[in-house]
């Protein structure tokens, strides 16, 4: 990404609709610029999802940054980190409301990842950081 991208904001209902209607195998990675483990894993997510491009896999980075950081600080951070993936900002402030709507096991910690392949009726939630080798295995399951 050479220029700062436009980052749309979504409410949880809009995000859930995106998850439920995605026609491609999609990885939704929930992160924030202030979360060290999140920032650490995004480069290997981008690299490995790119390796599955022929299978149509998409990566969407769902920012949980603070409202004061939207959109300029998030876009500037993503540009500085050389993120290439689509980023959306989740315009929600109460994790007790939106987290269980993504997955009932989500306690609000990040990073977390949701993998969806609606054509296969595949939905898998990971309530922890995914090491790169595990990510590759999970991407294979997503696309088999």
From TrEMBL:
CDD domains: TlpA_like_family (cd02966)
The organism's place on the tree of life at top rank: Bacteria
Coiled coil (UniProt feature): none
InterPro entries (alphabetical): AhpC/TSA (IPR000866), Thioredoxin-like_sf (IPR036249), Thioredoxin_domain (IPR013766), Thioredoxin_ResA/DsbE_sf (IPR050553)
Gene3D superfamilies per the UniProt record, alphabetical: Glutaredoxin
A single MF term (Gene Ontology): antioxidant activity
Residue spans crossing the bilayer: none
Residue ranges annotated for the Thioredoxin domain, each copy included: 1-131
Pfam families xrefs: AhpC-TSA
PROSITE patterns named in the record: THIOREDOXIN_2
Protein name according to UniProt: AhpC/TSA family protein
Organism: Hydrobacter penzbergensis
């Amino acid at each position: 990404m050479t220029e700062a991208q436009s980052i749309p904001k979504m409410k949880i209902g809009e995000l859930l609709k995106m998850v439920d209607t995605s026609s491609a195998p999609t990885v939704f990675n929930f992160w924030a610029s202030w979360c060290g483990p999140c920032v650490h894993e995004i480069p290997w997510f981008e690299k490995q999802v790119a390796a599955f491009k022929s299978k149509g896999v998409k990566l969407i980075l769902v920012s949980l940054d603070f409202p004061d950081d939207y959109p300029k600080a998030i876009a500037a951070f993503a540009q500085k980190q050389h993120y290439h993936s689509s980023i959306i900002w989740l315009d929600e402030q109460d994790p007790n409301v939106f987290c269980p709507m993504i997955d009932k096991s989500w306690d609000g910690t990040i990073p977390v990842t949701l993998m969806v392949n609606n054509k296969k009726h595949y939905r898998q939630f990971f309530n922890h950081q995914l090491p790169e080798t595990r990510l590759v295995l999970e991407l294979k399951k997503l696309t088999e």
